[in-house]
Structure formats: C-alpha cells, structure tokens
Amino acid sequence: MLVSLSAFFLVAGAVFFLAGTLGLLRFPDVYTRLHALTKADNLGLGLMVLGLMLQVESLAAAGKLLFIWLLLLVASATAGQLVASWAQGKGIAPWRG
After folding, report:
1. 10 Å Cβ neighbour count for 88?
2. Four-residue CA torsion sign, 28, 29, 32, 37
3. For 12-50, what is each residue's pLDDT tens digit?
4. What is the pTM assigned to this prediction?
5. Exposure pattern of 47-57 as b/e (b: 16+ CB <10 Å)?
6. Residues contacting residue 57 through CB under 8 Å, at least 6 positions apart
C-alpha cells in the first residue's frame, strides 16, 4: 500500500515536471514561461519529495528531503523574480495575446 502511494506521488510529480517543460517550450514570452516553470516545477518537486519521504527509513532522512524542497522553493522564487526584473528592465513587454 505504501509503495503504491509513493509511486503515485512520484508519477504525479513527474507529470508536473513535464507540464512545466511543455510550458517552457510552448508559452510565448518570458513571463508566462517563468510562471509555468516556477509553479509546475515547485509542485512537481513537492510531490516527488513526498513520494520519497514515504520510502525513507528514518525521520532524519525525511527531514533532509523536506529541507531540500524548502531551499529549492526559495531559490526558485528568487531566480524567477530576478529573471522577471531583468526582463522588465530590458523593456520586454508581457504578451497581450
């Protein structure tokens, strides 16, 4: 039961990673691409971490996985903000459809 739940979270995380990658390839401008990457990848990584936490044998290992995910959340938000600020500074206008 626990293995199948873990596999479900891992596959769901991979689907969100795939969705973020498709967003990077298909969306028209830097702002929408950033949105796709930061949202989908953060959720995908969270689901993968949850799936891996179900497989670890110690609470310390689960805590390390959670800490890694939190660090990557902060890093992703910071990088997204920096890229969006750079694009805005260069005068790149958001896509209006």
Report:
1. 13
2. positive
3. 999 999 999 998 899 999 999 998 888 888 999 999 999
4. 0.84
5. bbbbbbbbeee
6. none
